[in-house]
Fold each of these.
Amino acid sequence: MKSELVWDWPIRVSHWLMALLFTGLIITGNEGGDWFKYHFYMGYSLSALILARVLYGIWGSHYARFGQFVRSPKVVFSYVKGLLTGHHEHYAGHNPIGALMVVVLFLGLSLQWLTGLFTSDQIFWFGPFNGYASDDWLDRISTIHHTLPNILLALVALHILAVLFHEIHLKERLFLAMLHGKKKGLTGPVQVQTPRLGIVLSLVIGLAWLAVLWMMPI
């Protein structure tokens, strides 16, 4: 079957960079000491990457846009019912459950880096916004920041299991598709074009946010 491009390079690059940065954040967050500095810098990078990807979800290519793949609860339940009965609808981009996972992960990761801007190790390293909240609020924020990684790890594990389900049971090569961006057996897919303006705007705003964070003391 002919392969058709579905996920263009900005989607694929941002996906794998998020995976690498999240892994690095988990490792450095548990090390302490001088590693904590790199924990902040990777958190800054993740925040800029998510911001750029969200913007590309508005200005980007067809299958990158949230308006294309985010579905209503009714559609999600209908898709789940189809999976259980073996008559699910095929989607060129993210299916309704995959789209829901994307949104949940983006929200969870965003809450994680946002709370990280207020969090400190109480000794050497302090988030750039640490001085803008009361002690009571800092305690609440710190609790969220130190609890959420366990939830995010569970979501990542669920995401990997879902990919394996598609690979083994549904015979959809999602892993390879996230490497080269192409899928087979599609019926009338939209011709994917990567909009230069969308990339430029997303990158400029994301990098500007990153530069602001890097200039702030920790």
Note: The helical segments are 9-31, 35-59, 66-69, 73-85, 96-116, 135-168, 174-180, 196-215.
Amino acid sequence: MFEFFGTIGGLIMTPLYYVVSAVMLAWHKVFSLFLDPNGGLSWLLSIVGLTLVIRAALIPLFVKQIKSSRNMALLQPQVRELQKKYKHDRERLAQETMKLYKEAGTNPFASCLPILLQMPIFFALFRMIDQAAKKGTAHGFLTEDLADQFGQSRLFGDAGTNEGIPISGTFLSGDGTAVMILAAVLVVAMTATTFLTQRQLMAKNMPPEALTGPYAQQQKMLLYVLPVVFAVGGVAFPIGVLMYWTTSNLWTMSQQFYVIRRNPAPGTPAAKAKAERDAEKAKRKGVSTGDVSLEKSAGGTAVVDDEAEAPRPRVQPQRQTKAQRSKQQGGGPRPTGGAKSVPTKSKKKR
């Protein structure tokens, strides 16, 4: 039975070994132009390069994740209405809720796609580092020499003299105080970036009505549970794997900050901040923005500003006759026939 599952696992992981090793070796060749190819820094930077390539490939899924989280937050008032309506029929509630999500074009499972797709890459890198360090086992495009070089590479030292920090070392490996300190720093960084990324989403891009209910409870659970999971599991991760995950978290946090800043959800603190920035930018450019309040830019209802001067409508000039123009000039209408009019004097009554 164990051999069967081992064979299945090998068939699944083998393509990933080739993908991971190909990207890493390409970056390693670049860094070897100005760094020691046997040193740990060139291999560690190759892992950072691998992370950037993987995250760049996942950009479409990340955008889909942000949109899904945004739509889920905006739909929470309607979800609560369904919960009140079908509170005694859980099956009907589930059907109506999924129907609502489908009509809105969102998927509650889309927010998990980036992290789920990264997990196989994570485990492939973990096994490559671990087996290269312990057995010199080569995977993918790594030869035995490259696998041994990869597994034995050290930061701030030479593999031949066993000085420095091995990138395969863990907090629990007992490879020295320097390894434990660096691993602890990376575990804290990985945990903190995970927490701050989720906190950023909840504090900046969730409307007030979405901060209560089951969806809010789910987000709060992710806010506190995920960092604890990474902190507990991180003490057993090699330094190379910790660097991968920390770099990935920094990418996620930066990308999420950019998306929320440029396209925030309506009615959120991020939308209000964007409206204020747009108003300030328009003010600097000399563009009048007083006719519509900031709520419109923030996704709310447009409110007319009483202090703003309403634009005057342009009145087209009307064509006038010659008699009308003469009357406006004070001359009065002229008699026809060319005769001059003579004013008559009234006779005095004797």
Note: Confidence is low (pLDDT under 50) at residues 1-6, 289-311, 335-350.
Amino acid sequence: MTIVTTDLGHTLLQRLDEAAQHSEPGPGVTRLFCSEQHRGVCDVISGWMRRAGLTPELDASGNLVGRCARAKAGEKTLIMGSHQDTVVEGGKYDGMLGVALPLLALEALQEAGVTLPYGVEVVAFGDEEGTRFQSTLIGSRALAGTFDASSLEAKDADGISLAKALQDFGGEPENIPALARQPDSVLGFVEVHIEQGPVLERRDHALGIVTALTGIERHRLTVSGKAGHAGTTPMPGRRDALVGAAEMILEADSVLNATEDFVGVVGKLDVRPNAVNVIPSEVTFTLELRSPRAEVRAQGRDAILAACRRLAAARELEVSIEQTYSAEAVDCAPWLIEALGDACRASGQPAEPLFSGAGHDGLAMCDLTDIGMLFVRCRDGLSHHPGEAINAADGEAATRALMQFLADLPSRVEISS
């Protein structure tokens, strides 16, 4: 396949810069689900979709969906896309790269006179980060048919429910179940995303093929001791909840560092009474654990929690442990791993495999269809940060690899309805 379109990388970066303008004031990009910034970026993406030959439509769950004529006619369809929402003060590439890049690839194929003999759908998922309502993967679960209607009751910091926000945005919460795609109508789901880690940079590779999306679990631990006057209570015998929690956090860090394919973080900590001269009586902290291997995560979790109980007993503290979230690891489909790898190599790029340490919309879409994922190198492995960055050459490489994949897809799957 010879594509004469040039300077795709710089065009891609310009479009991502344009999308990044739709952000709350402050460092980086802050674009929350069903916000005015979300509304503004949908207008930008709609323009990209039309240039790629797709018809844009806001669906009932807040996704912006672009479909080609074949997809609208009900032919078997490849779904591509990623999320448009961000964390607070995030970067301009996390999520949005996977919206802008496939649209640019489709536009370039169209300009080159390449007609794809199957349906194509590109989705800018409304909510993946869960920043506003703490209820993640709303849009992808809607398409996969696994949407939980109880999540509509979730409220943001201002007390606005998800259902109300969707209604005000133009969505139709009551019609979300009707968005579920039929598995036999979908060829697969492919997402392009920045790596959000340092592996590709260390390999000096622009692209990587994802083999699996990591399993994730979250826990809330509450350590209870006894408050007292910081100046008059002797050090021996103190039941200091913060000291106990600190020991537990250090033990978690030790287990994580000693275990391959296992990462985690204590990202939030609340201290009571949080006074300068009072011994802390209670500490609540979060513990998030990730691994693509369920057995590694289970063994590591058991070791960490057993240590927390042991450390609590040694200081005459109490510890309660509540699991707040769990999602098992998801394997990418072998045929999509092979197809994306072949497309990379055909376009002159190495394509070594690696797993994703982050969750993505594929965690939901796998309930509908086979999933595949292409990673793009990001500077310093940085993500969820204003300094998030890719370069034009890597953007060009990823765009051309996806174009190759799209052109070659009919040789790999049955596309007739």
Note: The chain has two domains: 8-214+329-411, 217-326.
Amino acid sequence: MAVIAGIFILGYFYPLLYAAAKMLLLAMGICIVIDSLMLFRYNQPVQAGRNLPKRLSNGDPNHISITLSHVYPFHASFTIIDELPFQFQRRNHHFDFKADAHKSTEISYELTPTQRGEYSFGALNVYASSPLGLVERRLRFNEEQSVPVYPSFIQMRQLELKAISDQLQDVGIKKIRRIGHTMEFDQIREYVRGDDVRSINWKATARANDLMVNQYRDERSQQIYSVIDTGRVMKMPFEGLSLLDYAINSSLAISNIALTKHDKAGFVTFGDHENMIVPAQKKRSHIYRIQEALYNVETNFMESDFNRLLTFLHNKVHQRSLILLYTNFQTLSSMKRKLPVLKHIASKHLLVNIFFINTELDDLLDSTPEDEEDIYIKTMAEKFAFEKRSIVRILNQHGIQTILTRPQDLSVNTINKYLELKARGLI
């Protein structure tokens, strides 16, 4: 069109060019009509749809696909603009491709949500054009689709599969050397080289005329509670996820592992004025109840009431349990204010206090200061890191187990601690 306009301008001075410009304009008009007929002669030439899972996993890449088929008898070009939920803040999510005549095409991509809740996808906009490329036809599909984002069930399944296949050490979960053995009897079997000779059952050996040993198994039906702080200290974000979401994902994973080990799993949330509990149960289907409850957990900017937590646990949890307390202590003084409550909980339960390393300070700790301001900043970073280590030491002195971990290693380290305590027979 720009060329034709230029020829029209020159045609003012050269009449022959003016006639040529009119012929070109007519030819272009004819091509546009032909192109329009090629695209619009079919009532519904394109079928497209977005294939969403029933739910998305928070903090994990989720597979999503788009399928497109068309009945055009020519090699068509397509542009797909997918309207993603506002939570992703992406406005340029589009795909350009060509499809042969009467062919179906599938496009796959991944989305990683960073917060739980309802996600609404908008329309799927498809722009089709013929080989002439003069006209585009827009079609819209899937006007709106909603899908919930749940705590990380993908991570839960991965750890469950590795627990079943005894491959947990491959993701950093170490094997724990058992100190002695538990007293829960399992069965009598034949002796094999390497068995503890102290487990030989001499009466069974005499009856069978062969060495027989007693086999023991881990004690079962022990209560495991994940206690999550929903106060302002859990609002801190790391790599897109808040500490609360890291704790929720870890709680779901450890609950599933506990149920796999035939223990009872439950969880508690506490804040400034509201507490919630899902009582520990042993049924495998209980994991779905835990998942649904974790889906609705939210935090605020208020400081959590640890005294209320103490009263709540006293009234609701009567059996000695493993308490995995997810919270965060930024300073030594904040921990000391809560230490009397933690000691009281530890006197009735096996308490594991889980809090977080501030990974944002790693670069500061490894940097070389160049001026006085850098020296001051690095000194403050080292002070925070030292206080975290001091918190671990003081809690251990009072008989409270601790996990100081990076947020991304939380699930692995928590499962490590659970397996260690179970192997040592402390639960």
Note: Residues 159 and 168 are 7 Å apart (CA to CA).
